[in-house]
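Supplementary Note 3. Input sequence used for the single-chain structure prediction.
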Amino acid sequence: MKLCRFDDASLGNDRLGVVEGDSILDVTPVLEALPPLRWPLPKGDPLIANLGSLLPKIAAAAKTAPRKPRSAVKLKSPVANPPHVIAAPLNYKLHVEESKDPAIHHGVHLPTHEGFATPIDKMGLFLKSQTGLVGESDGIEIHWPDRRNDHELELAVVIGTGGKAIARADAMKHVAGYGIGLDITVRGPEDRSYRKSADSYSVLGPWLVTADEIAEPGNLDMEITVDGTTRQKSNTRELICDIPDLIVRASRVYALHPGDVILTGTPDGVSEIKAGNTLRCTIARIGTMTSIVR
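The predicted structure, written as discrete structure tokens, is reproduced below.
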């Protein structure tokens, strides 16, 4: 099932939808089944935390739900309240190679990892600001117009069931679904988390595809075009550390919670974006997400 969060000019904001082709089925009344919350709020996104029990209700509601064309709504991030946005650096071999360019590493974030099995063994994972997460219709606001800002296309994994020190054999059981991720970064000497955490520098969408819909997330074609020109094109089978490995590594350090987003890394072809560009991102079995740079 493809689930989206959308704004509608006539119905209001933060609606819940099921995506069927080019139509959005408004199943927002199902949200009334979510348990009431009070302070202190539990960790995690309430919708993702209760997704298992809600899916049958969503499927039933979709049979008679009003339809809207996708073009008539504004798609938001399908995860409204991510406790963590966790990202993997240098997780495709060819991206490791291109990162030897001084314009990318700035003499600080060197891609070399002698003595370590993978770049992630050396550098670890890193966190991005949760409040920087936006959806397709929000667009990307350039915060450093005088510096190089790059696109980084990534498969995004959304955690459905939390846990700590998750075993590899159990890792995929913790996945709620997948989306397209854009990890926008400004090049420079600052810490990765700072350069990648500006508002709108994490894009997730266009919707959440539930895990049962994607049998092989480790074999998905992916591509991004900028103003119609292909910049990145690869397949998730080229990941150095695969999805179960990333979940294991993350959960050793962070207790994972429903709604956590793991950005799995970007392939080669990262390049500069500027205000006015149109980014069109496609990942097989998920769909296509279009983001405008401003």
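The mean pLDDT is 97. The chain is about 15% helix and 30% strand.
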